[in-house]
Design brief:
Strand content: under 5%
Number of strands: 0
Distance between the termini: 46 Å
Number of helices: 3
Order of helices and strands: HHH
Radius of gyration: 22 Å
Length: 90
Amino acid sequence: MVFKPKEEQFAEFDDPKAFEKQDCLSCRILGSTAFVSLGGYTYFSGMQQLRATRHAIELSKSKYKYGSRQLGIVSLSATLVGLGVYRMFN
């Protein structure tokens, strides 16, 4: 026995424009502000914690030293800010 859904239940999924809905301006502002704020917080908080533990990081035997961790924080925060800008204008 093969399960077949009723065709009339999923008729709106056949239309590719069924999901193309515009967001309201306040939704875009709130969403983009959240992403940009999260990116800023990630940068400042991450760099503060990284500076506080710099000596321990340099003495550790980990292959991820200060520079690579700094690059990770900067790239994560830049990605979040970029998503915020994208959310606002697209």
